[in-house]
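Following up on my earlier thread - several people asked me to post the actual chain instead of describing it. Fair enough. Here it is, all 252 residues.
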Amino acid sequence: MDDLRGRRVLVTGSSTGIGEAVAIGFAEQGAEVAVHFNRSEGAAQAVVEAIGKGGGKAVLVRGDLAARGVARRVVEEAVDRLGGLDVLVNNAGSLIRRAPFAEIDDGLIDAVFDLNVRAVIATCQAAIPHLARQAGSSIINVGSIAGNDGGGAGSAIYASSKAFVHNLTKHLARDLGGRGIRVNTVSPGVIATPFHAATPLERMEAMRKSVALGRIGTPEECVGAFLFLASPAMSGYITGQNIHVNGGQLMP
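Reply from S.P.:
Thanks for posting it. Predicted structure:
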């Protein structure tokens, strides 16, 4: 994908898991990448070093996106260090913790929505003026299979937050199309990342059995969808869409 060479990309939450794989994947295509993290500084630095060893360019940007005002600072810092912005990948997000619906409290609701929803809104708002200056720019939001099927036990708020992201993508696609900014979603299924580190083995096995391909996915298997949606040559007439990467576990 030669049209990704030299593109400036901010990937939030890119120190581990899918975000890490996506950051490295863009760099391998010649893009310049801002690797964002909050707490995992060592892991984020390792991503930057891996990109550098591969001949790519990456910068490190830190910030707690769940805190008000931080998203704008993260975007501005990425723009300043990269010299502009062509692609925003809103990957940062978390389940925070599982809780039965009757036991959900305001603290959990606020924590999940601050990171999974409000941070996405704020990051997009901060990035739009910069993206509008570039031809072929795009926003790629990270949804989830949970946003379609309601999520597993104890994940009502997480699933609802991802459904919000799915719908926000459609609105932004309409709102920003006239400014030349495409907006799409990638929704992973069960992927072998730190996100599932605390998931009991029996539950992971049950999820594996529900996948048509019969296995858990890898972060690297998600990367192609992001590259495709960022490439004007490959997807220049695609906006407002949700690409599911779940091995056939859900077929909407």
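DSSP finds nine helices and seven strands in the chain. That should answer part of your original question.
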